[in-house]
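Quick one:
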Amino acid sequence: MNVLLLRPHPGNDRFGLGPFFRVEPLGLEYIGAALLARGHEVTIADLRFSPGVSTWVKRARPRIVGIGCLHALEFDRVIETARQVRRESPDAFILVGGHAAAAFPAAVECEAVDAVVVDDGEEIVPLLVDACQQGSDLSAVPGLRLRTPDGWISTAALAERTSLDLVPLPARHLVDRHRSGYHCLLFKPVWLIETARGCPHKCSFCSVWQLYNRSCRERSLEAVVEDFIRCGDSIFVADDLFWYNQSRSLELAKALKKRGVFKRWILVQTRTDLIRRSAELMEAWRPLAKDFDIFLGLEAASDTALDGLDKDAGVEDSIESVQLARSLKYGINGNFLVGHEWDEADFRELWDFVERHGLQRAGFTIHTPLPGTEYYRTVEHKLKGQQWSNFDMHHLLWEPRIGAKRFLELYAETWRRSILNTAGNKGIMDWIRQVRPSQIPYIVRVLWRTQRMMKPAEYLKEHLATRPNCAGGAA
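Output:
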């Protein structure tokens, strides 16, 4: 069958670090590989680039259209995309999948969507496409929310968790036309790699562990090594918790070295307490790239605040992990959560912590109740009428304790203390000197966009323009 897979534009990216991160649609590439292996024709269209939906539907003439939905802020844009597809191709079967859709499928259940994939797409989508081709009963396909004449129903769950080696390598060639547009921080083009999926921890702000029942699955070392070899010089490892399995991680480092893998840059995501107890592992991985960055969920500047997030890690973990990583010449990036309930003392505590430990490369996001999390369930009553596009972790979703105006002044001041403030310790020329001449327009454009985060008037204007009107959204 002819299948079109779409990565929509996320929509609202006026605030946050979105301008610094545009990565390939890896999930769609894995699904594409699984479909190609069964003899289907596959097109992947990344709508963050031209052309738009209408052109791709006319080019591909698909029987089935899959739409990726990674983040809650994309829900409305995904529905809009589905409706555009329906207008262009009334008879196409339209399904939606991806992390956010699987975690909270109700948000995309509408007349333009035929099914929502609520588990691993690499296994479910090929089963669905085969069933459509054969004219079989779609209610027999597992892992779906399915629209029927009598309403939406849930099909049976997968019998067991999908092996990540079911589809060994993603069909990256399906997005080669966009490769030069994929970037992270100072690096482009960038390749996205997944070596494992899931997380055993239970942070209250995260939906990963609930979606996968606190499991953590791994790809075979052979598949991961081959993926590293096939990819380019700048790698972002998308694992939810890199280095989780320490013995396997050591074996992977040895296997990569044995094959002569060495990259210009690698970025991974992990936890502070894991790093703190993994000096040998950190030493083993550091030689694999000229520059090696770690993204840490630092989250808070006190143990009390971390306990409130069910983080199961303390401030000493943050401090010692940063010290260990820096001693091995890793770069440290991180993120802190800023709460609606904060007062001025909380902001100053964070500023002091960042200054004391040199964490100016961190980001600062508003503690947002993402659908599918424990936090969302506890505050859902406050979210009536809220637009999904405001769930970007840079919008207030209800009135903060100290009032919106003062909160946003302090929030903007927090960002002014970061490395992104070109009027601060790192000016525009310092950034430009870090990139190749051909990348100067990119870095200037990205930095120009991020300066909005240092201006409280910009936040307040957006806040006043997008406050709930008691219609649609998260109600």
